[in-house]
Design goal:
Blueprint lengths: L6 E2 L2 E2 H36 L6 H28 L2 H40 L5 H24 L5 H30 L1
Length: 189
């Protein structure tokens, strides 16, 4: 029997070598594409000249998240091409969770940005009780995005468990808002 015809991990050494070379090539392409995407985003951020604002760090973080998302995507592709069942099954399970967490983080950040913008807009509109209405919108929008983020992050769990966690989150947030409101009223007196 020739060396190439011997088996390891359920495939011949020739198939394993071919798959390994292809997987490494895909990883290298992923690293190059990730760096190019980050470079383009970095230059776009620098051209906006927002270095002295709070948004600068936010956009930098988004650029890093996008770069690592590209890396994870190509890592996932490389592992699938490698074709080793023992490695593929558990790493794919892990790699599914990471994009879900990144998406949840982006949902939270996006929701917070929208909530702050709407709160400021409502307060600046000089509407009667604008501050209260702005706070209501702020908390509501933040809550809605937190729920979506939680459902996105826990995508691998069954819906019953996620719904129970959402109810617990709702109770905690409601208690926190009630405590903050009561504490601010006691402070004013």
């Amino acid at each position: 029997m020739v060396f190439w015809e011997k088996e390891a991990f359920g495939m011949t050494y020739k198939e394993l070598t071919t798959n390994s070379v292809l997987a490494l090539a895909i990883l290298a392409i992923g690293v190059v594409i990730g760096r190019i995407v980050y470079y383009i985003l970095d230059k776009a951020i620098d051209r906006t000249r927002i270095e002295k604002t709070n948004a600068y760090n936010f956009f930098r973080m988004v650029a890093v998240i996008i770069k690592w998302s590209v890396y994870i995507l190509f890592l996932s592709l490389a592992i699938r091409i490698l074709g080793i069942a023992q490695v593929t099954s558990w790493t794919i399970d892990i790699l599914v969770v990471i994009p879900a967490l990144v998406a949840a983080l982006l949902l939270i950040l996006g929701g917070f940005v929208i909530a702050v913008y709407l709160k400021k807009s409502i307060e600046e509109s000089k509407v009667e009780s604008g501050e209260i209405l702005g706070n209501i919108f702020f908390y509501f929008i933040t809550y809605v995005f937190m729920v979506f983020a939680l459902k996105t992050a826990l995508i691998s769990l069954d819906s019953g468990t996620v719904n129970i966690l959402v109810i617990i989150l709702t109770g905690i947030i409601g208690a926190g808002i009630a405590y903050r409101t009561a504490a601010s009223k006691v402070k004013k007196k």
